[in-house]
Structures are given as C-alpha cells and as structure tokens.
Amino acid sequence: MPKSYYILILFLLAAFTVRAQKPVETKGYPVIIGRDTLFTFYTGQGLFEPAERAQVVTKRIEELVNRIDFNPDSLTLKNDTSISVISYNSQIILAVNNKDATFTELNRPQLAASYLVILKKKLGNYFSDSSTKQVVINILEAVAVVILLVILIWALNKGSRWVKLKTLKAWENRMDKLAAQGAPVAYAKRLLPVVTGLLRIGRFILIILLVYMALPVLFFIFPSSKPIAVQLLGYIVNPFKSIVLAIVHYIPNLLTIAVIYIVTRYIVKLVKFIANEIALGAITLSGFYPEWAMPTYNIIRVLLFAFMFVVIFPYLPGSDSKVFQGVTVFLGILFSLGSSSAISNMVSGIVLTYMRPYKIGDRIKVGDVIGDVVEKNLLVTRLRTIKNEDITIPNATILSGHTTNYSTVAKTMGLILNTTITIGYDVPWQTVHNLLISAAEATDGVLTEHKPFVLQTGLNDFNVAYQLNAYTALSNQMAVLYSRLHQNIQDKFNEAGVEIMSPNYFALRDGNHIQIPDGYVPEGYKKPGFKVDK
C-alpha cells in the first residue's frame, strides 16, 4: 500500500476524533440594559430556566436603575461555598453558580467579580450618555413636548371660553323665559357667578393636570432624569393601581353584601304585601286589627334592615380597623346621649299604636287641646283645631296624660252633646224639658233615632239646672252643632215666653222688663212697677 494512502487515513482519523470531542453548542440568553448586553446566561438557577433567569435579572436591574437614589457603588458581592450573590442594599440582583463558570475560563468567584465590575461600569454610564447627537435629539424631543403642551393649553383656553360663552347665552335665554313667565330671576342671576367660577376652577385643574403629565415625559427624555419621571408617574399611577386592586379584591365581599341586601329587600316586600292585605281586609288575623298592619310593617322593616346592617358590617372595607370601630362607638354614644327624648317618643309612639286610643281623622282632646288627628308617627301626633291651627304634641306627653276621643263610637252609638241652662222655679220642669227636647230635635246633625233627654243636675238657690243631652254622629262638627243647638234653645224658650235668667234671679224682680227679645213679647205687655207694701 502506498505511503500517501496511510497518511490520508491518519488525517481522516484525527479529524473525526477532533469533531467527536467538540462540545455541543449551548444557547445563551443575554441580559440587555439600554440596548447594551451586560452578560449571558447558559444555565438555569434554582427553579428558573436560562430564559426565565435572564428575564428576572433584567427586570431587577431595570427596577434598580429606575430608583431615584440608585448608586452603583452600593453593589456588593458575597461568595459562598456553592454560590456567589451580587446584591444592592440587601436586595439580591443575581446569583452565579458553578455551572456558569464551566462556560468560561474563570472560576465561580472570578466570574461573579467580573459581573460586578460590568454592572458598576455599565450602570454607572447608564445615566451619562453624552454624545452630541443624542443630546441634540433629546433637546429636540423636549422642545417638541413643550410646544405640544403649549398648544394643548391654548386649545383648552379656547375651548373653555367657548363653553363659557355658550353657558352665558343659554343662561340669558333661560332668564328671558323666566322673566316672560313672571318668575323671579334675582336668585338665578346670583347663581351665574358661581357657575362661571366653577368653569374657571375646572379649566385651572385641567391645566395643572396637563403640566403634571408633561413633566414625566420631559424627564423621561433625558437618561439622567428618568428616575424622576418614574417617581412622578408613580404619584398618579400608584393610587389608581391601589384603588383598582382594592376594588378587585373587594369583589367577593361586595357580592356577599349584594346577596344579603337582595334577600332582605325581597323579605321586606313580602312583609309589605301581607301588611297591605291585612289592612285591606283580605287577610284577617284573630286579635290583630287592620290599622295595626302598616305600623307593624314599618317596625319589622326597621328591624330587618338593622339586622341586615349587623350582618353586612364585617364585610365593609375597614370595618376591622380600630379607627373605624372607635368612630362607630363614638357615634353610638353621641346618638344615645343626644336622643333620649326622641327614643322616649318613639317608644311611646309604638305603645300608642297598639293601644289604639285614636286614629287619623278622629276628633280628640289632649290636655286643653281639641282637634282632629291629621298625622301620627313614631315621634309626634299633629292635631288641627277648628281654627285651622296645627298643634304638634310629643307622643310621650300623650302617653303620660289622658286622651278624650269624641269619634270612637260616634258612628255607632252616637256622641252625646250636652249643654246646661238654669231656669227659675216659677217655670214647670215639664215645660222646660219639652222646650229643650224640641230645640234638640230641630237642630241639624242631631240623630233622630236616638231621642234627646234632659237631666236636672242641680236645685240652686234661685233656679234649677237643666242639662240637655242630644246624640250626633258628626263628632268633627261639634262646635257648629253646639252653636246651632244654643240658637234653637233661645228660639224655643223665647217663643214660649220663658226667660233664661242664668245664673240667678235677683230679689227685686217685679219692677224690671221681661228679659226676652221684643219680637217675642206678648201684645199689650206693660212693664210692671215696683210693689212696695206699706
């Protein structure tokens, strides 16, 4: 075999051996900050794959350089037996393991030290891009932002003036219409400065917002002021972010509150339906009066909503905070101390509801006040007198005293009107009885099915007291009925020639003219003279 043939075989064997020993190429994942690759990871770390590890380290470094107080010299390196850690003020930035060193000619501590040098150098230069081209570009961008801000403020001023003119025109048209209808416009004119002032305040707030939003854009253009831009944006973004997150986290509690409220509301509707049916008489309960239905419903409704609030309270935001609980206790004490009389009236109102001493429309007497009941609630009762005077009486006052109801049995048994006159002993009592009864029967509003009657209530020194009693169903017209009754008594007694000399006769009576109107004096009557016996 030729010598050249052996040489070729040896060359091919050597080439194959070298190819077989060449390691398999591994894909690396770079950490890029500001379009500059700092280093590349070929292996994972802990639970992170190489790609995830590069993303996490990149994010940490970006957050680090965005801090307004960042100082590259505060980066430190700590070598352990199996890992090297680079941190910034106790915050871990990245970790270097032994596998990372197999892809370089350095050992692990040396590789970690080189990473620390790269971070200090690159991040130190991150804020100092001072190339002329970049500076010019940054300045032009800042000028463009300022010009845009000026244009927006100008447009906002123009728009606010247009809105103000439209508002003034609409306001003037409205004033003209009101004046044409004869309505007073002085109050509306006084409101106009308030409206224009609100428009000015709104424009001022919008200008402040535009300027504030432009500042982060300007600071973000220049690398050295990017942390300030991030800080300014954080003042706006972070509160909204916190609000949105709080709302999202509160959704389960909100759903619970909604379910409790809906269930309570439908229970209240059911109770109201039953109460209405009882009040209308469609449902009857033994011992439960129809007029109790709506007051009972109101009490049950208050109790149900109070119970609902007790159940919902733990789900309210901040209900577990000491401040919220302290304020709640303070309000409870304040309410208790300041509403003792109100609570007394409320309890009295509930008691009066179930005592049923009166109802709306009844003519009652409370103390010295007589009037018709026009309103009754848990706190007070309002009466309207015959003079159209509305008098408010606390329920506690009514409960602590006595109440006279003139309307309770007026429709069934009849209310007895009574009045007393005194007549001399010279008139037969039968005549007086007949005259009084005929006067009652002649009065409109007096019941005919119940015959009037007379009681002799006193035998006085000079006269007899007669009390006339007549039935009526019109308890709300007592004053008018008494007036008619007195008129008829006068007419009947005058027609019969009987004098009403209340309260007393005088001893010297024979020399005086008879005390009845001239139209009723008998024809030929002469005033008697005084008779004096010698």
Automatic annotation (TrEMBL):
Localization per Swiss-Prot or TrEMBL: Cell membrane
UniProt domain Mechanosensitive ion channel MscS C-terminal: residue ranges: 418-500
Domain Mechanosensitive ion channel MscS: 342-407
Similarity comment text for this entry: Belongs to the MscS (TC 1.A.23) family.
Record carries keyword Cell membrane: yes
Membrane topology per record: Multi-pass membrane protein
SUPFAM superfamilies: Mechanosensitive channel protein MscS (YggB), C-terminal domain (SSF82689), Sm-like ribonucleoproteins (SSF50182)
Transmembrane intervals: 135-156, 204-222, 242-263, 295-316, 328-355
Sorted UniProt keywords: Cell membrane, Membrane, Transmembrane, Transmembrane helix
This protein's name: Small-conductance mechanosensitive channel
